[in-house]
């Protein structure tokens, strides 16, 4: 039952997350993510898989409406090659991404 509910709320590793009463930063910490940077309308968080920073999960969060956030998840496999560049070896789907999305959903589901 929980998996069906999870699947109904996910599309291309974008998750619709109902806002809890806590702040976004507190919610991110609860699922193991730390703030990387904040821009108007979007915040970015990371969760390292190993010491040293890569590979790591990268989560972009936008407010969808007053009651929901949209979590956009991918896996950074390695650091960008050139300083100042954002291009990287990222994965946007697959079993590792799905497992992480399910782990987050299990913690955050209402």
Structural write-up:
- By secondary structure, the chain is α+β, with helices and mostly antiparallel strands.
- The protein has one domain (2-108): TATA-Binding Protein (2-Layer Sandwich).
- The chain is 25% helix and 40% strand.
- It contains three helices and seven strands, in the order H-E-E-H-E-E-E-E-E-H.
- Strands 1, 2, 3, 4, 5, 6 and 7 form a seven-stranded antiparallel β-sheet that branches.
- Strand 5 (56-65) and strand 6 form a beta hairpin.
- The longest helix is centred in the C-terminal third of the chain and has 14 residues, at 95-108.
- The radius of gyration is 14 Å and the shape is globular.
- The two termini are 14 Å apart.
- Radius of gyration from the CA trace? 14 Å
- Please describe the biggest sheet, giving its number of strands, its sense, and whether it closes into a barrel: 7 strands, antiparallel
Following the backbone from N to C, one meets helices and strands in this order, namely HEEHEEEEEH
Report the span from N to C terminus: 14 Å
Mean pLDDT: 83
Segments where pLDDT lies below 50 for 5+ residues?
1-10
Helix count from the secondary structure assignment: 3
Strands, total number: 7
What is the name of the CATH topology?
Answer: TATA-Binding Protein
CATH class: Alpha Beta
Overall 3D form: globular
Strand content: 35-45%
Structural class: alpha+beta
CATH architecture annotation name: 2-Layer Sandwich
Number of domains: 1
Name the helicity range: 25-40%
């Amino acid at each position: 039952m929980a998996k069906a509910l999870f699947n109904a709320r996910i599309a291309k590793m974008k998750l619709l997350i109902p806002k809890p009463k806590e702040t976004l930063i507190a919610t991110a910490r609860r699922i193991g993510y730390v703030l990387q940077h904040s821009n108007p309308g979007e915040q970015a968080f990371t969760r390292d898989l190993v010491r040293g920073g890569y590979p790591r999960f990268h989560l972009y969060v936008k407010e969808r409406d007053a009651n929901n956030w949209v979590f956009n998840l991918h896996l950074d496999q390695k650091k960008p090659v050139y300083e100042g560049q954002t291009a990287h070896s990222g994965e946007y789907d697959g079993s590792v991404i799905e497992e992480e999305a399910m782990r987050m959903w299990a913690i955050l589901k209402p």
